[in-house]
Amino acid sequence: IIVLHAALTSFRKLAIPRDTYAAIPDCGEQKINASLACNTNSPKGNPGSTIRTIEDFLGIDINHIVIVDFDGFADFINTLGGVEIDVPDTNGKEGGAVVCGDVDGGKQQGGVSLKIRPGEVTLEGDKALAFARLRKNECDLSEDDRDRAARQQLVLDGIKGRLTSVTRFPYNFLKGPWIGWNAPKAFISDMGGFTLPQVAIAAILGGSGESNVLGEEGGASTGPAGSIFVSQGVCEEAVRKLTGSDPPHEAECSPG
Q: pTM of the predicted model, to two decimals?
């Protein structure tokens, strides 16, 4: 779950790991990703539940929601010609892979197998999606859901880089109709034709957009059923970094 704060002079992101322990209205205390399945049998989930959960958790107001479709997301990245990502050297093994593992059973079962070294790499749609989804990094078993959230932000930054790069302008101009055709297939949103361009403009003018993962810098511990427990102080400080001010409402953070 990624919360965006967009304005003409700033574009900030806060990733909330899916295993974060939270109070979900009408569905009790559990991992925050369960909010989308709260009180619904719809294949699209219950976005309203997720909005209310995040609003209570962070003490902020959520104006809009965007749901990313996995298949459409991969096609959209392929239309962009892949995304370029600067993979950090997280395990200190010079020259060795830092992200590796299997998604959807791996290559032998029709899924994707990853073995990615640090440095700049261009990932096509299926591998970019696997890079963002990989839950167990065989190259670094100490990773948890916060590291996964950080990888997701690298992919988002890579998409933005493709769309806003001056050197990519000729490609984007020629591929514009296909990009415009595939983009809506990747996202489901309540934002209309007036609001969505405003978010795009904010992303372009607001700089690179600092990546921030809730609990990444400490203040998080192991909660019930292997969840991530985030203290109130860390939760409120994350909101200040995101919005530039204190939460307008009391942040519940992880209960208990």
A: 0.71
